[in-house]
């Protein structure tokens, strides 16, 4: 009697958000260029055709993983920064503290996935570098918009260069990410923030 032919099993199904979470962590730990397609498929437990059908190219997946990772943090941080109940200085302090907390989570890679991403890159990855640079620029424009509002509401002097002020605190954010990657603890980053806040050019409200 002939043995029945075994049917091939269906390819493993992967929840999209689970896949993006895995990809985000890998890209965060190893960087874009340090993460291969083979690394991604192995971590997700799927084959390359499944990865391409679900997410597109590696660059497409990186973009989606960034969006997924940012979405988890941006709502809370935007609420802090844009709060109508907090003076601009207090909102900025809590915003920066929240970033320091994110840079030093014990169960996640150190630093920020965006702040120091793809600063040095091969020519073929220039489009990825432009994408991450645009995200950093967007965060500085968000800060600038908050500082513009502070000028309108009298919390900052009329002549304040809000663009330079936003870039100053943007540099603090990038520096915290780099130092966290080098091992700086949460307490050290918050001391750095406290010193950076002494540069605030407005009067403090009580």
Descriptive report:
The protein is mostly helical and about 210 residues long. Helices cover about 65% and strands about 0% of the residues. It has 8 helices and no strands. The protein has helices spanning about 15-30, 35-45, 50-55, 60-80, 90-105, 125-150, 160-180, 185-195. Residues about 5-10 have low confidence and may be disordered.
Defining traits:
elongated, Tetracycline Repressor, domain 2, mainly alpha, 206 residues, 8 helices, 0% strand, 64% helix
Topology diagram in text:
Blueprint: H1 16-30, H2 37-44, H3 48-55, H4 58-82, H5 88-103, H6 126-152, H7 162-181, H8 186-197
How helix-rich are the residues, as a percent range? 55-70%
Number of strands: 0
Quaternary form: single chain
Give the rounded overall mean pLDDT: 88
Following the backbone from N to C, one meets helices and strands in this order, namely: HHHHHHHH
Note poorly predicted spans: 4-11
Question: Quick one: biggest sheet?
Answer: none
Number of H/I helices = 8
CATH class term: Mainly Alpha
Question: Quick recap of the structure?
Answer:
The protein has eight helices and no strands. It is mostly helical and about 210 residues long.
């Amino acid at each position: 009697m002939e043995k029945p032919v075994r049917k091939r099993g269906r390819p493993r199904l992967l929840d999209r958000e689970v896949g993006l979470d895995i990809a985000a962590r890998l890209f965060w730990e190893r960087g874009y260029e340090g993460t291969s397609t083979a690394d991604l498929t192995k971590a997700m437990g799927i084959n390359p055709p499944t990865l391409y059908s679900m997410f597109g190219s590696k660059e497409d997946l990186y973009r989606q993983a960034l969006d997924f990772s940012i979405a988890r943090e941006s709502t809370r941080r935007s609420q802090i920064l844009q709060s109508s109940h907090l003076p601009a200085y207090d909102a900025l302090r809590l915003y920066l503290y929240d970033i320091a907390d994110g840079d030093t989570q014990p169960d996640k890679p150190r630093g920020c996935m965006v702040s120091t991403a793809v600063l040095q890159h091969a020519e073929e990855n220039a489009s990825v570098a432009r994408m991450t640079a645009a995200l950093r620029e967007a965060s500085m424009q968000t800060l600038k918009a908050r500082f513009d509002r502070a000028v309108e509401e009298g919390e900052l002097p009329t002549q304040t260069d809000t663009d330079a002020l936003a870039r100053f605190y943007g540099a603090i954010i990038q520096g915290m990410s780099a130092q966290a990657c080098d091992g700086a603890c949460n307490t050290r980053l918050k001391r750095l923030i406290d010193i950076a806040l002494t540069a605030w050019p407005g009067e403090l409200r009580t």
